């Protein structure tokens, strides 16, 4: 297990009700270090095996690492504007930072969970997770040494597994975003100090690692990824929720639609920042405390075990219940009031005995199937936002955290 204590902690900036501030962290450590670790009706994708036209039809792109197979399968119906007086859906987005599979079975576990509950998700792929460690000198991180990575590199076998499950995720209808590459959170090379030009460089490298993995690895007996990544990539989350201000101009030039990097968000309807939808992790009630906590597994951990990933097993059951109840408290607060979208961040990690994975699974199961609830990816949520009347969205943004519309939704919208 890598040492996560070196990651920078970040104040959430939420005033009197501030969460004990921590930033999001990367997904997986290097496999070499011995890591511990919709969308209804989606059919599993096929990773591995020899490629054939029947398995991956479409137009090869570049070196054949990716193939344009056309429209993504298993997408929701085309979104439509809210009707006058209609209750807004309760959107919930489960997202995953890093999105590497390191042999702990968490990636396929949550793909299966999503299929079983008709959920779309967003996977923020770290580009270096598709770069073999033997080729790490190809990575030239801004303001850091050549080949440096604070999340390490995966073993060749785990890179192949990651390719398999990223392929399956897209075929199941999920979104593949980016978590960039080396996940630098501390020191002078921190992403928090990067310029817009640095972000442009980092994005270009992340895209190349995804679209040129065959050239970099020499593996030609593995199926390509079935999408044009440059076209599919429309959003991101930065390491440790740092550096958004300088990232956004680069994102706008690339035509990205959203960014999920703001720290310390509140459960309100979102607005745009520099022309990009700003979709932050949110502060939610933290059972047993007067403060709130950001809606991410790592933030639960930082408050419970003070950054230890393997602390006091006797407390695991209580911590798991507390994390589950925090997610559900955030969900219920929005569902029963302003219907603000609810965003949850995760990592494929077995921290503290895997309790956070169990907590997020239990929370998803208890949210799924409720009236008006839509479990979607960030991109699918943006599709809905973009067809709404801007005046309706502006009216929704007047509702505070936990504030239900006075007189019900019909009266609320009529007042507009």
Describe the structure.
Helices cover 31% and strands 11% of the residues. Strands 3, 4, 5, 11 and 12 form a five-stranded parallel beta sheet that branches. A three-stranded mixed beta sheet has the order 6-8-7, sandwiched between helices. Strand 7 and strand 8 (276-278) form a beta hairpin. It starts with 58 loop residues before the first strand and ends with a helix. It has helices at residues 106-116, 156-171, 196-211, 213-217, 229-232, 244-253, 297-304, 316-335, 351-367, 378-386, 390-396, 408-414, and strands at residues 59-61, 66-68, 90-98, 121-125, 175-178, 258-259, 272-273, 276-278, 283-285, 292-294, 342-346, 373-375.
Labels describing this entry:
alpha/beta, globular, 416 residues, single chain, 12 helices
Mean pLDDT: 89
Low-confidence stretches are 1-24, 26-54
- Distance between the terminal alpha carbons, to the nearest Å? 54 Å
Biggest sheet layout: 5 strands, parallel
Based on helices, strands and strand pairing, what is the structural class?
alpha/beta
Rg over CA atoms, rounded to whole Å, is: 20 Å
Annotation, overall tally of beta strands: 12
Order of helices and strands: EEEHEHEHHHHEEEEEHHEHEHHH
Total helix count?
12
Helical content class: 25-40%
Q: What's the shape?
A: globular
Strand fraction equals: 5-15%
Provide a compact summary of the structure.
The protein has 416 residues and is an alpha/beta fold. The protein contains 12 helices and 12 strands. Strands 3, 4, 5, 11 and 12 form a 5-stranded parallel sheet that branches. A 3-stranded mixed sheet has the order 6-8-7, with helices on both faces. Strands 1-2 form a two-stranded antiparallel sheet.
């Amino acid at each position: 297990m890598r040492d996560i204590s070196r990651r920078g902690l970040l104040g959430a900036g939420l005033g009197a009700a501030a969460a004990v501030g921590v930033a999001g962290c990367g997904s997986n450590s290097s496999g070499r270090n011995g890591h511990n670790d919709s969308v209804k009706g989606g059919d599993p994708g096929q990773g591995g095996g020899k490629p054939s036209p029947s398995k991956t039809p479409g137009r090869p792109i570049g070196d054949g690492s990716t193939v344009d197979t056309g429209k993504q399968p298993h997408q929701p119906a085309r979104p439509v504007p809210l009707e006058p007086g209609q209750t807004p859906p309760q959107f919930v987005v489960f997202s995953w930072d890093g999105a590497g599979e390191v042999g702990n079975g968490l990636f396929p576990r949550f793909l299966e969970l999503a299929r079983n509950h008709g959920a779309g998700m967003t996977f923020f792929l770290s580009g270096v997770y598709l770069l073999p460690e033997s080729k790490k000198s190809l990575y030239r991180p801004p303001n850091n040494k050549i080949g440096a990575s604070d999340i390490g590199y995966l073993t060749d076998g785990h890179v192949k597994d990651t390719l398999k499950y990223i392929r399956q995720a897209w075929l199941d209808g999920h979104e593949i975003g980016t978590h960039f590459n080396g996940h630098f959170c501390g020191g002078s090379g921190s992403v928090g100090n990067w310029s817009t030009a640095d972000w442009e460089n980092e994005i270009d490298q992340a895209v190349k690692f995804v679209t040129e993995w065959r050239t970099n690895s020499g593996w030609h007996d593995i199926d390509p990824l079935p999408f044009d990544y440059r076209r599919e990539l429309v959003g991101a989350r930065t390491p440790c929720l740092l550096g958004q201000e300088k990232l956004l101009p680069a994102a706008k030039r690339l035509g990205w639609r959203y960014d999920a990097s703001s720290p310390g968000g509140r459960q309100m309807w979102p607005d745009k920042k520099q022309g990009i939808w700003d979709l932050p992790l949110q502060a939610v009630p933290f059972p047993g405390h007067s403060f709130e906590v950001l809606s991410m597994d790592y933030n639960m951990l930082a408050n419970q075990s003070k950054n230890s990933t393997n602390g006091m097993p006797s407390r695991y059951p209580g911590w798991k219940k507390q994390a589950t109840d925090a997610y559900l408290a955030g969900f219920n607060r929005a569902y029963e009031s302003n219907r603000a979208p609810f965003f949850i961040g995760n990592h494929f990690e077995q921290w503290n005995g895997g309790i956070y994975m169990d907590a997020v699974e239990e929370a998803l199961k208890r949210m799924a199937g409720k009236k008006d609830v839509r479990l979607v990816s960030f991109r699918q949520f943006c599709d809905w936002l973009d067809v709404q009347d801007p005046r309706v969205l502006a009216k929704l943004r007047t509702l505070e955290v936990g504030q239900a519309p006075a007189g019900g939704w019909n009266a609320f919208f009529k007042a507009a």
